[in-house]
């Protein structure tokens, strides 16, 4: 169980960190947040939760107007141009232990996030105050860089501020300038394209559907995730996600939209000009092909599993 917003606020007070808090309706974007705190005196922030191909995770906290090019950032970390992507929603709950829309540097307070690398925009240090969500997106708090640093040091971290808009050359004689921020550990979450995605049972544990057994995904304090097989109760149906075509389409659209936005930047516009459309389409097809195949397989298997259980529990009426 991760820390709650109330526990975090108590901790900030115990550390004697000066902050102001503003409650508001749940917001999912910086624009929506600005409607409630944009005139309260402080810079807004955007917070990205990213993943590389080796299952290492990163939080990038930047001022709202800072331009973050994921391809450039990936190269600067030594991961190549396509080494970073948005982390899956499942990782928010398993690793950061926050819901969608609540990515924040304060999430590193949770032990499960101890292997997550945190990169802070150096522009934060130039602001008198900056707004962040304290683990919940129905409240915003503002504090200065000194207060944020004090909190991070209390968790055992040294704050790392970088120029997120820089684009230094990377090559044989010019090593990646941010390679030191690669996390030392990785957290492997279930990623099984031939099985249904994880769902939750009544205890809050994540359960992967199967016709013979259910795999319970238990998160240890170290942040590592392990699979423990258990036999289902006789006659009971394991918890599986619904084969909902609408949700399936929404997930496809979310993945496509996220990738599309990550492909369009000032640098890519300058580089490709009139050919940008073709370049973006090619990159999206290349990056999404396997993801979409996996999603389609998951949807197919989920529908099959639901049909299987419906079949074995169907009892025709006697004439």
Short description:
The chain has 319 residues and is α+β, with helices and mostly antiparallel strands. The protein has helices at 5-14, 30-37, 70-76, 89-96, 145-154, 245-263, 266-272, 276-312; strands at residues 20-23, 45-52, 57-63, 84-86, 117-121, 130-132, 139-143, 161-162, 199-200, 206-208, 214-219, 225-230.
Topology:
Layout: H1 5-14, E1 20-23, H2 30-37, E2 45-52, E3 57-63, H3 70-76, E4 84-86, H4 89-96, E5 117-121, E6 130-132, E7 139-143, H5 145-154, E8 161-162, E9 199-200, E10 206-208, E11 214-219, E12 225-230, H6 245-263, H7 266-272, H8 276-312
Parallel strand pairs: 3-5, 5-8
Antiparallel strand pairs: 1-7, 2-3, 2-4, 6-7, 9-10, 10-11, 11-12
